Amino acid sequence: MNVSCRCYNCNTNIPTNTYVSSNNSDKQNLVLQICKGIFEAIQNENTTADISCSMSHKQIRNTNEVEECINKEFGQLFRNNVLRKEISSYSIFNTWRIRFKWSEFNNDSLIKNLLKISKEWYNPFTNYLQRIDSQMSNKRFYEQNGKDDILDNLKNLLPGFDYLIEYSWNSYYNNYCYGDFVFASYSGIFIKVTVNTKDGHRFQSLKNKNKSLENFEGKYVTLLRATYNHDEDDSENATLEFIDDSDEIIVQNLKKIHTTSLQRYDNNRNREEEIVDQIATVAAGAVVGIAAVAAVAGVGFLAYKAATNKTVRRAATAVSYGQLAYSLIKEFEEFEKRNERERNNDDD
Asked: Which parts pass through the membrane (predicted)?
């Protein structure tokens, strides 16, 4: 594994067929390196980030290609004057140095856009995170520990951090316990939560209890830290406190993105079901009283989706039921196109 490169293939042994990972390793590395460097600068209260990036896969070969990739992915930030860049190249090792500058007043907008960019390019790593989370949540874990309110509370407080990838637990005198839980998000943001609690609960640590977070190097964009204070006798007043204000801002923006995505998914799903129901109603009427070809048009958005059959769509316009079916099918098509545009233009 080449940990100096942050692409998926250099940091995991789990195969993937996604386009981002298999065909754009240098681009993925470049984008995630930039996101990581800017996030860490913000966490350190800086407004400048110097990033050195080597293109070990030789898919990006010159400064023009480096700049083209950066402009494509971060162009909205440049156009809105949120971010500025300078690029220079080293004479050896196919390495480029990129300096980014921004104003502290733009941190919130910058964080929001970086989360969306990193989400797109980090996506192949979710295969890896799902596998680790499955190991943490396996039958042995739950049999020994039961359903735990601490984990439930943390997941509720950290929406978007869907993957538990590491934990350890210790106990000491007078029923006090403490431990660390590491959660990961689909944007590559990891958070390490140190839990302090006064109760008799015991977590059974797995074999990798002492695994250092260094083993996840190359697999996250940035690492956040927080503490969670929990008392079994007063669980309603449990508190989650972030080590840095910038960490809290990152979590709040990730929460907004996660909530918006869920709302959009629900809205789109409801509208899709409405269209399908309308098509089914038209089809039922067509079967009873209209020519069979109109029925094909009514029920046939499945065939339409599968074969894009122009004959079926033309036939659907031949009769009144078929005209309605055709319009619904076209609405379904426009609905899908609109969803795609919303996803692509989400940064606006």
From this structure: 279-304
Cβ proximity of 119 and 32 under 8 Å: no
Whole-angstrom distance, CA of residue 155 vs CA of residue 333: 36
* Chain segment 102-150, per-residue pLDDT in tens: 999 999 999 999 999 999 999 999 888 998 888 877 644 544 554 467 7
Q: Summarize pLDDT for 260-282 with one digit per residue, the tens.
A: 765 554 455 555 556 666 656 65
CA 286 to CA 313: how far, in whole Å? 15
Contacts of residue 59, Cβ cutoff 8 Å, sequence gap at least 6: 24, 25, 26, 27
Are 115 and 12 part of one and the same domain? yes
**Tokens 């094909």 map to which residue?**
296
Of the candidates 51, 28, 27, which has an alpha carbon nearest to the alpha carbon of residue 38? 51
Residue 126 included in any domain: no
* Domain shared by 206 and 275, yes or no: no
* Residue 17 and residue 105 in one domain: yes
Q: Encode pLDDT of 46-76 as tens digits.
A: 999 999 998 888 899 888 999 999 999 999 9
End-to-end C-alpha distance for the chain, whole angstroms: 37
Read off the pTM.
Answer: 0.71
Q: How far apart are CA 154 and CA 174, in angstroms?
A: 24
* Residues 76 and 40 both lie in one domain: yes
Residues 180 and 227 sit within 8 Å (Cβ to Cβ)? no
